[in-house]
Amino acid sequence: MAKAVRFHETGGPEVLRWEAVDVPEPGAGEVRIRHEAVGLNFADTYFRTGLYPSPLPAGMGVEAAGTVETVGPGVEDFAPGDRVTYTGSPLGAYSTERVMPAEHLIALPDEIGFDTAAAMTMRGLTTAYLLRRIWPVAAGDTVLLQAAAGGVGLIFTQWARLLGIRVIGTVSTKAKAEVAHAHGCDEVIIYTEENVAQRVRELTDGVGVRVAYDSIGARTYASSLASVARRGLLVCFGTASGPVPPIDAMQLALAGSVYVTRPALADFIADPAERRELAAELFGHVAAGRISIEINQRYELSDAVAAHRDLESGRSVGSSVFSV
After folding, report:
1. What is the C-alpha to C-alpha distance for residues 54 and 137, in angstroms, rounded to an integer?
2. Do the Cβ atoms of 153 and 279 come closer than 8 Å?
3. Every domain of the chain and the residues it spans
4. What is the separation of C-alpha 207 from the centre of its chain, rounded to a whole number of angstroms?
5. How far is it, in rounded angstroms, from Cα 315 to Cα 126?
6. Whole-model pTM?
7. What is the pLDDT along the chain (324 residues), one digit of tens a residue?
8. What keywords does the record list, in alphabetical order (predicted)?
9. Which run of H or of E encompasses 230?
10. How many helices (H) does the chain have, and how many strands (E)?
11. Do 188 and 209 touch, CB atoms closer than 8 A?
12. What are the DSSP calls for 77-119, one per residue?
């Protein structure tokens, strides 16, 4: 029988349960997938805590890679035996197998392993829209990236280097600073020891950065905003330390007519053609070795409680996956 991680109430990691589940035959437009690897993302904790509401009881996780077992009526783009990956709703990726809409699947090239796909589909597509869609950054631009040693950070810095973009990254420890440097970060600020905005201004001759990318949220948004150059952009794409508080419009004027956006990956991969285009660029870099995906933490699916505790403690570096 299939098994899955589910939660019946919101709360800490301890609410996650490892349960036997029934997996039905796929209906119209659906497929049944046997998972080979499952992604662990900080966004998973938002569903578990209730920050992102979902009907209960609920499955957990939005990213996995595996093999199509059967397809339902009307599915034409996939067949049994196809290698696929995905990221996005509905919840339920923390499972050995599941049924889900075929429209969310992305064909996985043979050159990319299941573990690699589960470690980078969400993070890689997030990086893709941050660098290729949300703002016209170009060679010679300088940007700030909070959490430069995180899962998105390590992909972002490598991709930015390919584009000729200078990255000033922030991390919490010296050990993470070394990791960020090794993956292409040009300058690293240890935010627990230095004033981020002040250091950014020093590194940019007082100008600031064209774009500040912030996935940490409450603890860092103020330093990110203070680091942006006149008419630049603050991208708040995550809330690892808590939601960003309301920003008064006058703050943006005083900061230099700065723009602010709070994007979501779902809105950049909703169009199937755009999703395929972004995935193709990502997979191309990874398959060619231009971007490396390092899996630094591995867990069994039954160890989801421990995995979430590690994730929220800040002990994790780079990408984490569950083996199935």
Report:
1. 35
2. no
3. 2-121+275-323, 135-262
4. 29
5. 22
6. 0.90
7. 899 999 999 999 999 999 999 999 999 999 999 999 999 988 899 899 998 899 999 999 999 999 999 999 999 999 999 999 999 878 999 999 999 999 999 999 999 999 999 999 999 999 999 999 999 999 999 999 999 998 899 999 999 999 999 999 999 899 999 999 999 999 999 998 999 999 999 999 999 999 999 999 888 999 999 999 999 999 999 888 888 888 889 999 999 999 999 999 999 999 999 999 999 999 999 999 999 998 988 999 999 999 999 988 877 776 889 999
8. NADP, Oxidoreductase
9. strand 228-236
10. 9, 16
11. no
12. S--TT-EEEEESSSS--SBSEEEEEGGG-EE--TTS-HHHHHH
| Cα angle: 161, vertex 130, 147; to 5 degrees | 70
Architecture of domain 2-121+275-323: Alpha-Beta Complex (3.90)
| Cβ–Cβ under 8 Å, residues 241 and 217 | yes
Query: Any idea which residue has 């990110």 for tokens?
Result: 224
Residue with tokens 């905003």: 225
Q: Looking at the domain covering 135-262, what would its CATH class be?
A: alpha beta
